[in-house]
Amino acid sequence: MNREKKERPDLPQEILEGIATPEEDFQNKVLRPIIKMQSELLLVHLHRQLKSSKIRLDQLPDLKKEAALVALFSKNQAFKREIIGIIIGQFTIEEYENYHTFSKEINRRINQIVLNRCLDLVIHQT
């Protein structure tokens, strides 16, 4: 198995400036780089889930594609937990401890960011 070491990408400084809440700080300094780093894996996982759910995006118009993805992310609890696990698995111990101070909000942010990334990659690229 070829497993290359991934490094978190650096985000532009303007994203990191003027942060108002600890959740936003965590989102921009930890979540976004991890999600960007794991983008390919997240996309492969999405396609597997679509296949197992028998959702054929290639046969749907863009509005229905978007609705199908939004429904998948909002209704499939197991899929949402798997997405969260893919991201949390990249945390350091310190980040993991920090995550638990507001995990419900961070989980919501993870799913929203990943959904938006998937919408951009799957719908707007085809």
List keywords for this structure.
single chain, 126 residues, 7 helices, Glyoxalase
Fold and architecture overview:
This protein has one domain (21-123). Helix 2 packs across helix 7 (103-123) and helix 5 packs across helix 7. With 126 residues, it is mostly helical. The chain starts with 12 loop residues before the first helix and ends with a helix. The longest helix is centred in the last third of the chain and has 21 residues, at 103-123. It is built from seven helices and no strands. Helices cover 70% and strands 0% of the residues. The chain is elongated, with a radius of gyration of 15 Å.
Secondary-structure topology with pairs:
Layout: H1 13-16, H2 22-37, H3 39-52, H4 62-75, H5 77-88, H6 93-99, H7 103-123
Helix pairs in contact: 2-7, 3-7, 4-7, 5-7
Protein name: Glyoxalase
| Subunit arrangement of the protein | single chain
Task: Tell me what portion of residues adopts beta-strand conformation.
Answer: under 5%
Number of domains: 1
Specify the overall morphology: elongated
Q: Which structural class fits the helix and strand makeup? A: mainly alpha
Q: Could you give a short description of this structure?
A:
This is Glyoxalase. 70% of the residues lie in helices and 0% in strands.
